[in-house]
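Please go through the protein record below and see whether the fold suits the sequence. Record follows.
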Amino acid sequence: MIDLLYRLNMMGEKQFFESNNLIDGLVVPAHLLAFYHGSLPSFLSDINLPFIIDPMTYVWNIDRNYVLNESELKKSYKKYVDFLNNNIASLLGFSRITDNHFSEEDLFTFSNSILAFQYTLCGHSSNPRLRSLRRIRKRIRGADEREIRPFGLIPPYFFFSSMSQRAYELTRICAENALETEFSNLTNIIPCLCMGQEILFNDTFRENLISDFSEYGSVFLWIDDFDERGVSVQALQNYRELVTKFNENDVSVFNMYASFYSLLMENFGLEKISSGIAISHRKRVTSSATGGGMPLRYYEPSLKMEILNFSAFRIYSRHPELFVCNCPICQPYSSRVNTNQTVSEREEILAPLFVDEHDQWGNVIRKAEMSWKNTRYHFLHVKKNEQLAASSTELIDLITVLRNDYSSLSRLDPTFYNIRSVEHLKRWYESF
């Protein structure tokens, strides 16, 4: 079964990771760990889930404006640089790593500091204040607090769109350096291949990639802005071919940003997939937080994508046969909706779930139950069901389900329901 990992994007999401029956592990951005170094390690210990730290080193080789806030390094990245405390780390926000030349010693020091930060959770075990907290917790609980470690370490990595770029050379060198450190004897070294989609379409590049990284037991893939719902059939096939070739060389693949399509690849060598909770099924290397939040989006199980709450309200009011979600939030409503009712009757049932109620002046007097929190719990329940179904069903039967879903959903008017095209479902089954 492919493991479902979720990215902890902000501390407000901690509540969702306590539902560990729905989650197989988590990915923690290194700068978030640095900023919350006093509380985040204890949280990781409490939830008792496998986790890995994303060192985020690609930011050392992108435009400085993505890590600056009004000409100053963002606070979380400043903390991260302070913890790393070496020459290359201090370049962040001033100069790209590929614009400089370093000695082998400098590169090794940088690699080692990145690994040490992950393994020790930025020095969690050596922090006097945290040691005191652990002693207090031990007295309260009457038992030793377990030593928490990530399930693997990711060496420094940088975005590349060609094998000839120095960013690729540095990614490869840093991964090799990681094998020379003491940490390679303590845990798994898992390189991250952060690359442009161009790599997928170049047979020579793909072969070289596999050759250069086949000595590692696992690799993370981060294909820049790779939206499984939007790319071509050929891109999907090339992605699957890359995973298959790694698997043939005894390398398991973890996909850093994935959606439902990747769940179909269990038999091709994909072992873990990651995303945000109801967000971030893809990521562009040069993306940055926009602020202001996003509209509430509901993960629709048949469409296999997030849609606006009001879009779900419209769809289920007119096509009640599609509303089959049995998660704890949806089930009390889906069990009451049936094809014998009129559209207005179904709207009356569904409105409390999806639609805010306003007074005559436009003020909200009742919030929809499908809130920011509940959209995420719903998402986790649906993804767990998808995971279990993908693992227990033959691929040919999964493809048949996609074909049937596309046939029934293609009649929906995207404009009326304010949804994207459902053509991704067709591309998914055609790619096989």
Remarks:
- The first strand starts at residue 3 and ends at 7.
